[in-house]
Design brief:
Blueprint lengths: L4 H28 L5 H15 L3 E7 L5 H9 L20 E4 L7 E6 L9 H4 L7 E4 L5 H8 L5 E4 L1 H7 L19 E4 L1 E7 L3 H4 L2 E7 L1 H5 L2 H7 L5 E7 L6 H11 L8 E7 L11 H19 L6 E3 L2 H10 L2 H7 L1 H55 L5 H38 L1
């Protein structure tokens, strides 16, 4: 069985910790051998920061009810043995939700009221105003408490059409995209503008940030999502439903907010979710697979991508399989194939980029240390020339100079030994990456 995303991410974290340890050993060796000047020390600090910095954002983007939250549950939180993010029928995440870890904050769910959209401050400004958020404590060891608290992400308000328009959820120019009204003409809008989740999940502690973005209206009403969080994500998982196909709102999100022709350096995955709706007990396995292939081709054609780039998945069956330990169902769900693609694109690609950057930094570090040794060699050459200029002078001066040159020769030989040792350490560092 292929390694899960969780396992591959944990392996990445172990590699970073091992390399950071080697850097500390190398720094100590340079200091002990008087080769750690200010320039070398600055270079080492930058290299250590580069290695330690591992914040990676994966954004799940789709229209409402495409199974984003269930996919987050299946990939990241199945170890809890139940759903953590709300994903049952009629209960879906209504506001953009960031899930990460900040060690200086207690485990919590922080919610920004939707009414803040009526004020001129941008979302980034509200992040610096903690008193504006409604906070709820989280017990990370209690799955029931986590799931119960996360139900607040589904909360809504009933407002007038004028209020909905002011909040960004009602547009008279495009009435076909407006949410439905109830018998009193009221519009249902999210109660919260944004959610920040902080808790010490092993993956989150290693720098992973999960972004769950619900629906075209929610994305379009919050410009900072498109030009900020989604646009800067290291990986984007775009989800459509096998039961709905690519709808007009799905296509609008893809064309307006994913921008497939830009940012080729980041990972983009197209997922055809809910393929279990095609699992007809009266059809044979080949017939079911043929239906799935047809849906993949239609999805690829609508989005303008290769059918091989569309991954067919049942997040719900994948979660059930992980919780129940059913390897056959897990394989059939397609979830492992998605995790492998996500890990290879995001974790693997990031490691390659990090390796390249570190190799360049080590080359520069080698050049700095070599500069120090060359400076000492130049000083030795100048002193030797000075000695040659004293030829024919008093024996006392000559003896003094011979002693001095003997000392310099010993220093130079020691410097040569340090260079050879330095090269050996570099070899170890290169092998480590």
């Amino acid at each position: 069985m292929a390694a899960t995303f969780n396992a591959q991410w944990a392996e990445q974290g172990a590699w970073r910790r091992e390399f950071s340890f080697l850097l500390r050993l190398f720094s100590r060796w340079l200091k002990d051998n008087a080769l750690l000047d200010t320039a070398v020390q600055d270079r080492l600090l930058r290299l250590e920061r580069r290695t330690a910095s591992n914040r990676v954002v994966v954004a799940f983007v789709a229209e409402f009810s495409r199974g984003k939250s269930e996919m987050v549950n299946a990939i990241f939180f199945a170890d809890y043995g139940r759903r953590i993010m709300p994903a049952s029928a009629g209960r879906t995440t209504m506001c953009p939700t960031e899930i990460g870890y900040e060690p200086d904050l207690s485990p919590s769910l922080r919610l920004l009221p939707i009414q803040t959209r009526l004020q001129p401050q941008a979302l980034r400004d509200w992040r610096q105003t903690p008193e504006a958020w409604t906070a709820f404590d989280l017990d990370v060891n209690n799955a029931e408490q986590l799931a119960s608290t996360f139900e607040r992400l589904t909360e809504t308000l009933q407002v007038t059409q004028q209020e909905a328009q002011a909040l960004g959820f009602w547009h008279s120019q495009t009435p076909e995209e407006n949410p439905p009204t109830d018998a009193q003409g009221l519009v249902q809008v999210p109660k919260w503008r944004h959610a920040l989740v902080n808790f010490a999940h092993p993956l989150l502690k290693q720098g992973l940030v999960i972004l769950d973005t619900p629906g075209l209206n929610a994305i379009g009403a919050e410009p900072e999502l498109t030009v900020g969080l989604i646009d800067q994500a290291d990986a984007v998982v775009f989800i459509v439903g096998a039961d709905t196909g690519v709808t007009g709102s799905d296509l609008a999100i893809w064309q307006e907010h994913i921008r497939p022709d830009a940012d080729q350096g980041r990972t983009k995955l197209v997922v055809l979710n809910k393929i279990d709706t095609l699992w007809d007990e009266l059809s044979s396995a080949p017939q079911i697979q043929a239906q799935i292939d047809v849906q993949k081709r239609r999805t690829a054609q609508a989005l303008g991508v290769d059918p091989l780039e569309v991954l067919a998945v049942s997040a719900q069956k994948g979660l059930v399989a992980k919780v129940s330990g059913n390897a056959e169902l897990l394989e059939r769900s397609g979830l492992l194939a998605l995790e492998t693609a996500l890990a290879q694109g995001m974790v693997g690609g990031r490691r390659v980029a990090l390796h390249t950057a570190i190799a360049q930094d080590i080359d520069a570090l080698h050049a700095e240390v070599a500069r120090l040794v060359q400076a000492r060699e130049l000083g030795f050459t100048e002193q030797r020339a000075e000695l040659e200029g004293l030829r024919g002078k008093s024996d006392a001066v000559l003896r003094q100079m011979r002693q001095r040159i003997a000392q310099e020769q010993q220093d130079f030989e020691r410097a040569g030994s340090k260079i050879r040792a330095l090269k050996a350490v570099h070899v170890r560092l290169f092998k480590a990456i």
